[in-house]
Amino acid sequence: MSKEKVFIGIDVSKDKLDVAVRPSGEFMVFSSTEDGLSVMTEFIRSKEPELIVLEATGGFEMGALRSLALARLPVVAINPRQVRDFAKAMGILAKTDKIDAHVIARFADSVRPKVRAFRTPEEEMLDAFNARRFQIVEMITAEKNRLVSCSKWTKKDIQGNIRGLEKRLAKLNKDLDDLIKKSPIWRQKDKILQSIPGVGPVMARTILADLPEAGMLNRKEIAALTGVAPLNCDSGKYKGKSAIWGGRAKVRSVLYMCVLTALRRNPKIKAFYDRLIRAGKKPKVALTACMRKLLVIINTVLKNGTCWEPNC
Hints:
- By secondary structure, the protein is α/β, with parallel strands linked by helices.
- The chain has helices at about 35-45, 60-70, 80-90, 95-110, 120-150, 155-180, 185-195, 200-210, 220-225, 250-265, 265-280, 285-305; strands at about 5-10, 15-20, 25-30, 50-55, 75-80, 235, 240.
- The strands form two sheets. The chain has a five-stranded mixed beta sheet. A two-stranded antiparallel sheet has the order 6-7.
- The longest helix is centred in the middle third of the chain and has 29 residues, at about 120-150.
């Protein structure tokens, strides 16, 4: 008789980790300290799980994810919305840490999301630097907006803060460039990405940090992962409008700005946009289609390992 497969769900919070084991129904709580993570990892290892699932919880999950991955256990972090929708579909409306852990374990058993390779320290550093860069850019934008309507008494303070933030942004850009240059693989990918007209350093860094799957998926998968694939909304005789939804918002926002540049510099994207407009498409729809087109080009050149050519 074959051994019953074990699935584990972990509900993550700031101070503790609630662990549920399926199908046995066991439940344990561990602290989020280094010792707690070590004890939790050994407990889970003893269960010989088929799959471990935990929610991405604003970075609080990284300690558990790292500990389990280093122990070579099959672990994956998923979007909390997926688990909540799954719970509602199962008629589970109550929400406590214990209930959530059991729901996640049930989700692991039923859905079985794919385990992804855990990031190296260098990849984590690249992601952290790039995320911080986005935060600083947002702070600079907010301060510049305040500068427009501020009083004469606060103007100098806001201007000083903007200058300070711009210095930190310049340093982060240099740190990102230095980190990429240290890796032959990243350096080559960065060169390939920036060979595409319209793709600059910011888009290249964002692809490397936030879309490492680029070049390893097909065109439909990469578009769906990023959130630029049109999703139908049809039911019976009703034919709704297709729309994009979900995906990686940070990549999508940078991709949008890249398309605006590509319309001036990339003849292939410009011709594609003009053709859609002539066919009667609205500018917003045409821009979204161009985002998908540019993303497919990015995916193709990385997959081929060659710089951009007009025919790719």
